[in-house]
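Retro notes (design track)

What went well: tokenization of the new backbones is finally stable.
What didn't: we kept losing track of which sequence belonged to which structure.
Fix going forward: every design gets posted as structure first, then sequence, in one message. First example under the new rule, 229 residues:
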């Protein structure tokens, strides 16, 4: 069965326009994360604590900043991987990405909630919901674009499509676990996100293997044609 090529007549804009907007929103959100960390002031409390005391007092804030930054970086990398193969965007894909970026823009706020209310289950739960919504929209983004090779490179192997889809499921699943753990211990929920980078290195989520399969399939096609001739 011949691979179905993306229909260029349905594209509203090039994928590069949407990628540029995405890069800008991610850059702003990642920069705003640091504002959740209070700078040393001139009050008596800061003088009494000294610099070591101030740093020790804000260890959890630094952790929250690093966690939010790394999670956003993972989402940004997944978006880059998806759009490396997406050849154009239609109306549905544009709105999936708009809602995705809306959720990304909320991350500095939900990260601040966790920092300001470190012992509150609700704060961790809201952060988990934020991560889940972003992850779910990333998954939907790829599922929509890759279904029937609607908007992606028609030469992609099924293994490669599946590997990228699997990567999109990691953070939503980790977020569900974090939301459940938030009812047991809020800090435990925060630390559970550290599993995400580890999981992404596992074989089922390794897009390099799928890419090798795509190249092998593309290289094998002319040979098969030659044998038929």
């Amino acid at each position: 069965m011949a691979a179905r090529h993306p229909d260029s007549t349905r594209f509203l804009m090039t994928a590069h326009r949407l990628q540029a907007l995405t890069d800008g929103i991610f850059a702003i959100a990642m920069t705003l994360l640091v504002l959740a960390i209070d700078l040393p002031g001139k009050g008596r409390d800061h003088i009494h604590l000294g610099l070591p005391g101030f740093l020790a007092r804000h260890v959890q804030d630094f952790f929250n900043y690093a966690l939010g930054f790394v999670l956003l970086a993972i989402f940004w990398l997944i978006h880059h991987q998806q759009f490396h193969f997406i050849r154009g965007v239609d109306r549905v894909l544009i709105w999936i990405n708009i809602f995705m970026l809306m959720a990304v823009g909320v991350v500095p706020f939900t990260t601040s909630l966790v920092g300001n209310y470190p012992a509150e289950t609700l704060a961790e739960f809201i952060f988990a919901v934020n991560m889940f919504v972003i992850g779910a929209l990333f998954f939907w983004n790829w599922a929509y674009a890759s279904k029937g090779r609607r908007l992606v490179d028609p030469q992609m192997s099924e293994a490669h499509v599946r590997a990228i889809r699997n990567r999109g499921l990691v953070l939503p699943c980790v977020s569900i676990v974090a939301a459940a753990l938030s009812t047991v211990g809020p800090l435990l929920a925060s630390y559970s996100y550290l599993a995400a980078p580890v999981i992404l290195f596992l074989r089922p989520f390794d897009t390099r293997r799928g890419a090798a399969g795509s190249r092998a399939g593309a290289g094998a096609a002319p040979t098969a044609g030659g044998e038929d001739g």
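Added context from the reviewer: The longest helix spans residues 121-146.
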